[in-house]
Write a structure and sequence with these properties.
Number of domains: 1
Shape: elongated
Radius of gyration: 18 Å
Largest sheet: none
Structural class: mainly alpha
Number of helices: 5
């Protein structure tokens, strides 16, 4: 695990304290949890906008494809493949 020095804005520091207190965990664990959750949202939004493939999202999140699909589903993110894309793919195969 790497160590980084970061300046934390007051509102984010309060969020870290809140999560640590609510979940009865250390502040460092709270910060790691919130950072991970933020990255998951970032990757999900990038996938939803078509900037990432499902495999790229899974690799970034260090999850397998099923775990990634489950996470995206929990976040309400639908697949970014349109019916037109599927039809074009089928046409190019035949």
């Amino acid at each position: 695990m790497k160590v980084r020095s970061v300046r934390i804005p007051e509102d984010i520091d309060k969020a870290i304290d809140y999560v640590a207190r609510t979940e009865k965990i250390e502040k460092t664990s709270s910060l790691r949890k919130l950072t991970r959750m933020g990255f998951e949202v970032y990757v999900a939004k990038s996938y939803e906008r078509g900037k990432l493939t499902l495999r790229e999202a899974a690799d970034l999140l260090n999850l397998n494809l099923i775990e990634t699909i489950d996470l995206l589903s929990e976040m309400g993110v639908k697949g970014n493949i349109k019916a037109r894309d599927v039809m074009e793919g089928l046409v190019s195969i035949t």
